[in-house]
Amino acid sequence: MFRASTDVAFLTRAAYEYRYVVRRLWRSPRFALIVIMTLALGIGANATVFTIMNAALFEGFPLVKHNDRVVYVTTTKNTVYYPDYVQWRASATSLEDMALARNIYTTLSAANDDPNAYFTTEVTANMFALLGVRPFLGRDFVAADEQPGAAPVALLRYDLWQGAFGADPGVVGRSVRINGVPATIIGVMPRGFSFPGDQSLWVPLIPTKAALRRETPYARYAVARLADRATIETAGAELATISKRLEEAYPATNRGVAPVLQTFAEWSLGPNGAELYETALGAVFLVLLIISANTANLLIERALSRWHDVAIQLAVGSSQSRAVQQVILESLTLSLLGGAVGWCVAEVALRTYAQLLPSGDHTRVLSYAMSYMAFGYLIAVSLGTGLAVGVIAAIGLAKINVADALRGAHAGISRIEARLIKGLIATQIALAVVLLASTGVLIRSFINVATADVGVTGDDLLSMSLYVPPEKYADAPARASFYSNLGERLALIPGVESVGFGTAAPAEYVPTSEYQIDDAQIGDNAQHQAIGRFVADVGYFKTLDIPIVAGRAFDRSDRAESMPVAIINARFAATHWAAESPIGKRLRLQISGKVTPWLTIVGVVGNVVQNDRNRQAFGPLVYVPYAQSPEANMFTFARTRVPPTNVVSAFRRQVYELDPTLPVPALWPLSERFARLYAFERLSTKVLLTFALVAVFIASFGLYATLSLFVSKRTHEIGVRAALGATRRDVYRLVFAKAGAPVGIGLAVGIAASPVVNSVLVSQLVGVSTLDPATLALSAGVLLLAGVAGGLIPARRAVGVDPAIALRHE
After folding, report:
1. What is the average pLDDT across 673-700?
2. Cα separations (Å) of 425 from 43, 54, 699?
3. 692 and 803 share a domain?
């Protein structure tokens, strides 16, 4: 009974204290609103970045069962042979199952509708069972669907089912045409599911005869689920052992082919992509620390403004601990309210982020809804921030001397409070310098990449990727005829100057081959090395304005039956023939285990970046004529006299007139393709820059608030100085002297800490060091200017003090 009454008394007392705190905040709405919105910004930003990072690094694809047990398997040559996949799946005990996937574009038309191009993935029949996902409507693929000669079937994405088919539940069993071939829709996948990217369709992966004979690498990657107690390391070791046996059995195709296993984050973001998210989380955490220091300053200043009232409470018997508890409770209340508003901020920010992600980015299909883990993180950050800020603010209040306060000494600031406030200001400045310096080196790195010389310019160039399916264009003459006819049609479009075809767009991936040089002066004639192999037609170099350094470009005489020829880039020529002309020299390539005939070098062209996303190196390239090596997948380039977007419709129409079943993906100006290639980095840089600017503003605002308090507390002193003859310059010097120490210390600490913090970004930096003097100087200069701006208004106020009024000030 006694314990119950004690608990009731405690709860009653706590409720009374809380009501008192709430009433006090209600009477100061401006102060409360400033603190709540400032905290909401920091807490909301943290919750936003945590949710994004959690989705990209840990949650993975929505609806997939146990994403953390799913691994992605490719090889050191970035391709997978179909028979290798079969051997891996049958022999690897560390894998529960393995499936193969291949991304393509297809056209789909229902009834008499015009065909539309869709991003499609061919998958083995076991893919969705491996992922633990079942169709929302209809059935999954079965083994019979992936057998040669099987009736074509397809699964729809939920969004496609809603948009193109009006969410018709009777779509299962409906006949459509995929790439002009009749196919049956057998199901619809659940809402929110898309794998392994922004796919709209899934069709069975049916291996071709060439793939079964190892004549071509068939896919870029496989997907596997780890068995119980297996790790990605043990699975990798087992697959490496199996691959070693395959290399011994099939040296022509498998020499040097080793498996590469990756987690979702490594596969979708690249080996260092996760660091961008970690950097963003570190940046928002720095912003939160700056906001916390600023909020602690505001609470201390608020406590000092009511120092006399608190002293009276202490004098009449109120305990010092109660005053401290009230400050902490006030801080927690403000922080939790800030967290509630921050939750709304995060929801808006997450929706905006999802809309801003570039098309084709793997992370577009992730779920950016705030999970229970993210919501728990938000609550923890809110409570932790409120508690930390309250404790810091209570330190100054706990040192109040009751006698001095009652005598009116509250007009000054004690040495302890002054040190605490200066320390908080220095902390804000130091953290802002670190954040601004980190953002600065990332921006400089991005600029180095974006402005690097690629070897061509994207102005007035339209690019288009086309894939002619081998089941329809089975032989080389058929493919060569299609692209030749297409080039002639496109060249007749008004506004088009020239048309060319090539393996890939500049700066993007081209397959590499081993080569051998027929030249006794080279030394070891049996030595094989890697070189990028690029297929180009007769108009490619002219269209992209790539200069002919020596010899000639490809021409109509380079036919399938004529002497095999090649053109090399200047980088490759300088490596092997620096002192002589390479024209007339010979080399041969090894492609998929087969050695090509000797190729006679007929020309040398300027360097173009391929296979280097950072655009910092011109790798060796060998170009072979399209007529002698017709490919199914080619990029089309057109140089135009009008804006490239003006001829997009005409391009699409010409393709459909030649073959209405061919998918035509987005046609982009080459400059836009370059921009899209780095869209994610650009978005990340903008986000970090926003955080840095917010940090600068908050740090300068904190300095302004502190100097405002200093001026208000020193009004009497300033008046006395003015009455005794102090000039305006003297008053300015007095005010800025108080700001100089914390700002100087903050700048020094921030500059010293920046290279250490930037060291975690080293893998993301291109052409700039972690200790970049220009960036550090600019960061320090911006914060110094922000400090001056923060102190200017209080200083002007001090200069304007009337000595007569100041001498009467209490």
Report:
1. 78
2. 20, 32, 7
3. yes
